[in-house]
Write a structure and sequence with these properties.
Number of helices: 15
CATH topology of the largest domain: Cytochrome Bc1 Complex, Chain A, domain 1
Order of helices and strands: EEEHHEEHHHHHEHEEHHEEHHHHHE
Largest sheet: 6 strands, mixed
Number of domains: 2
Oligomer: single chain
Distance between the termini: 54 Å
Radius of gyration: 23 Å
Strand content: 15-25%
Structural class: alpha+beta
CATH superfamily of the largest domain: Metalloenzyme, LuxS/M16 peptidase-like
Number of strands: 11
Shape: globular
Helix content: 25-40%
Strand order of the largest sheet: 1-2-6-3-5-4
CATH architecture of the largest domain: 2-Layer Sandwich
CATH class of the largest domain: Alpha Beta
Length: 413
Amino acid sequence: MIQFEKTILANGLRVIVHTDRSTPFVAVNVCYNVGAKHEDSSRTGFAHLFEHLTFGGSKHVPDFDTPIQNVGGTNNAFTTNDITNYYITVPANNIETALWLESDRMVGPKFTKKGLEIQRKVVIEEFRQRNLNKPYGDTWHLLRDLSYKVHPYRWPTIGLTPEHIEQATLEEVKDFFFHHYAPNNAILVITGNIAPDHAFRLAEKWFSDIPEREIKNLQIFPEPVQTEGRELTVHRDVPIDTFYVAWHMSSRLDEDFYAADLLSDILSGGNSSRVEERLVKGQKLFAEADVFLSGENDPGLFIATGKLNEGVDFESGRQALIEEVLKTAEAQVTPHELEKVKNKVEAEQVFNEIGYLEKAMQLASYEILGDAGQINQQADHYRNVTADNILKVASGILCSDNCNLLNYLSLKK
């Protein structure tokens, strides 16, 4: 059980504190409720751009890394389709350095044409290296666009196209910041060697004078129920034929999510999983194969993918993996399989609760979903899943009308 205390400042900033006396450090984690799904479809990649912009200095701080390094700390950030998350770890007696930096980041970055141009080039180059020039780099662009027609999950975090960042004006960038990166759209989590009362006083000191802002989120329309299967075939300069099959599934807080998560582990969670034993090691059809969840907060995707071994017929290999997945919609999993994956999930949760930084990020992510207390309920959610639950979820989502198939073929063949 992770104990924590929570308060809300007058400007709307939610502050969560967890004390962990086993470490001499503290983590300062600021999570903003803004990700790729909050972007306009004509200006995608903005949330990811801001992850870069805010490390280029803020209103009063020219450089974030040096002050942190000077007090023995580290810092980083990540952006997803749902959130933007910044985190700093420092020795507990240097926590005010971290709070000073994060509060100034919230006040605003240095908005200059030169600064925007520098980070614009960095982001565009990252787009080209990771998504345009790297083997299989455009997979998520293709698969998301195939699977989603309405919901903004149809583009990945980096954006639909580099032209959206190339064409962004300084005024558009400012507007996006001041309507999303605000105390009333953020969660501050402090974990580690600090008492809650002291942490709350410091949060008040450093963040209370930042005014709340008007949050302008575009309306996010739910993805309509898919009524027919979709298929896309592309040819690329890649060494191995591969494919991706995606089925729409539930949202992160739906009870069906936990059954789907365990199902993915039964299929490919480790060396004794069905796909690994039967198709990778047994029939030797794949160099690698995987079944996993996209894991977003809104309804996401249940995905199966495989890279075929040399000489394996593409159609036969693809059908073998799809049939292995579909079997779970026709017959219950065994008690041994279910207990094995439940134990695995519980072990992973215990491991994740050891580190003070991991706890900070988990508390923030569950608070974004509506309740940080969910961190203490996850084990029960998974433990309560039955074989019938898994059969129900599998038969509900693993159908041809709900299927999106991406065939990613090698030009060399």
